[in-house]
UniProtKB/TrEMBL annotation:
The lineage of its organism: Bacteria, Pseudomonadati, Campylobacterota, Epsilonproteobacteria, Campylobacterales. This is AAA family ATPase. Residues 6-192 form the CobQ/CobB/MinD/ParA nucleotide binding domain. The keyword Transmembrane does not apply. It comes from the Bacteria. InterPro entries: CobQ/CobB/MinD/ParA_Nub-bd_dom, DNA_Partitioning_ATPase, P-loop_NTPase. It holds the Pfam family CbiA. Keywords: Plasmid.
Length: 231
């Protein structure tokens, strides 16, 4: 089955989800034809509209903007219609809101590949416990285990041991820990100020290298290289 919808989701805010979504969308949006798709669309479900506003900056600084569609919390039916209209020639990346809502749950259920960024802070475990409950409820609706791909994000560059959060992630069947670790880098903030990805700001930076590694991991696990979803 072909991967058409990739969603970044977490019911907890402050995990760097929208920043990661932006960087993935800009860079993967340049490659969608190489993946075998004819169209690329970004869906902004976050009520803070972070990606939508960054896209406006992108246009102001002369960069080609993303094609973005937005749905508000009271437009579940419209989102459902949009999802049903997606064909095999279209790749969609969704930035869901950092809270629990019907719209965000629908995005998770409809997705072929879900990414959940978390930091190494011990408090993240409480957020993941709540998210685990949501995934359990969605699994009952979908009649299969809903799994998300967890990415350690905004990690202190000096931090080497984050075993507490890793051990918790590995114990839960709904969570699959990604190999890539994204560290806290000032380049993320600087690049967004211009509507750039970190790779567009500086291809040789550590942030750029980490995002590139994450994209390669997503390509492999989501089957984007061969046009099929990896089971």
């Amino acid at each position: 089955m072909k991967t058409n919808i990739i969603t970044l989701a977490h019911q907890k805010g402050g995990t760097g989800k929208s920043t990661m979504a932006w960087n993935l969308a800009v860079e993967m949006g340049k490659k969608y034809k190489k993946y075998g798709y004819k169209k690329f669309i970004f869906v902004d479900l976050d009520n803070q509209e972070s990606v939508t506003m960054t896209n406006r900056l992108r246009m102001q600084y002369g960069q080609d903007p993303l094609e973005i569609v937005r749905f508000t919390d009271d437009e579940r039916n419209k989102l459902e219609d949009f999802i049903n209209s997606i064909d095999d020639d279209t790749l969609v990346i969704i930035d869901s809101g950092g809270y629990d809502a019907d719209l965000n749950r629908l995005a998770i259920i409809a997705s072929d590949f879900v990414i959940t960024p978390v930091s190494s802070d011990y408090m993240e475990i409480f957020g993941l416990q709540k998210f685990k409950t949501i995934l359990e409820e969605l699994s009952e609706i979908k009649k299969e285990t809903v799994r998300v791909n967890v990415v350690l994000n905004k990690i202190d560059p000096k931090l080497k041991d984050f075993s507490d959060i890793v051990d918790f992630i590995n114990e839960i069947e709904h969570f699959k820990l990604c190999d890539t670790v994204i560290r806290f880098r000032s380049d993320y903030k600087h690049s967004i100020g211009y509507g750039f990805s970190v790779r567009e700001l500086d291809k040789k930076s550590k942030a750029s290298e980490e995002i590139s590694i994450l994209i390669k991991e997503i390509e492999k696990k989501a089957g984007l290289k061969n046009g099929k979803k990896k089971k």
